Fold this protein.
Amino acid sequence: VRSTVKKSVWAEDEVNRALCDNLIDEQLLGNDYTVTATRQQVASIALRLIKEMTEKNADEGKLNLFADIADGTPDMSAPMTRQEMATLIYRALRYIEQNSKYTYTDYNSNLTAYTDSPQLKEWAKEPMAFMEALELVDPVTKTTLAPNAPSLYRAGAGYGRTCHHGTAHRLGADGVGWR
């Protein structure tokens, strides 16, 4: 990775590996890994994840990544929230399941353990439950998810990379994940 980019030490390895796995568009990444992710950046990760996992481009009409988010016509340059990011990655994973040999196991929702779970939009409840159960969305504290907080680009890259390698490796706790 270019030495001139601004990096966070804890995320550098995941972002570098996501770059090597072709999950990041370097033109969209820019030169600062520490900034808030935009909807366009996360959508790019989701689409690249689909291509890597299914070996074909997504049919965006069937995928509909942004259904219900900002009335389905979001400002793509706007910052992405944690619940939006979880939803996009979840929708990509479901698309992969429907268009490949991969499936995922059952899981139990833990959302009731978080005092801010009532802040989740209706369209984000299932995706956040799924992503939290798979440990792809880390809680901010033991009792908060911060669904409306901005999501950082390095988090999207890490989620995408974990999902990509989850086909061959662990993708969550307690036997939950891809098989």
Notes: The longest helix spans residues 82-98. Confidence is low (pLDDT under 50) at residues 154-161, 164-179. The radius of gyration is 15 Å. Helices lie at 9-20, 26-29, 39-54, 60-63, 82-98, 125-133, 153-165.
